[in-house]
Amino acid sequence: MIPTLLLYRNPSELTALLVEHALWAHHPPVSPHCRGQMPEEDLVELKFRLCDGSDIGPIRYSSSSTVAMLKERIISEWPRDKKIIPRVANDVKLISGGKILENNKTIAQCRSPFGELPAGVITMHVVVQPSLNKIKTVSNKS
């Protein structure tokens, strides 16, 4: 099965955010000012819906960015006032089109095979699931 990215699309939400982060040295989010440097079809605008309904993004990414890179960006942008805060990429699950996305896949590999849809923001759902080692450590202390 091929995971899909489409859940919600909202063309009116068009913003971009640049963050200085070493992770993005090879596949940075793209500013609207840089659009002429990369063909539009290579850019994907994503936002990430957290379990409380709040969002991170939207942010434009290269379609060659991996799911693991998206997770690192989510961790760096995670609101610090939340009850649960992911610490590492494996604590984060990205869900799109009812599929959990694999870390080694690129955004392009996760796109829907059912044809092109109008341009807009693609929303992915974010689930935080701490690793089993952390859960065992907490339960051993009780």
Description:
This protein has a single domain (22-141), classed as Roll (Ubiquitin-like (UB roll)), CATH 3.10.20. The protein is α+β, with helices and mostly antiparallel strands and 142 residues long. A five-stranded mixed sheet has the order 2-1-5-3-4, with helices on one face. It is 18% helix and 21% strand. The radius of gyration is 16 Å and the shape is globular. It has helices at residues 67-77, 107-110, 132-141; strands at residues 43-49, 55-62, 92-96, 99-100, 121-128. It is built from three helices and five strands, in the order ββαββαβα.
Total individual domains: 1
Number of strands: 5
N-to-C SSE string, H for helix and E for strand:
EEHEEHEH
Structural class: alpha+beta
Draw up the topology in text.
Elements lengths: L42 E7 L5 E8 L4 H11 L14 E5 L2 E2 L6 H4 L10 E8 L3 H10 L1
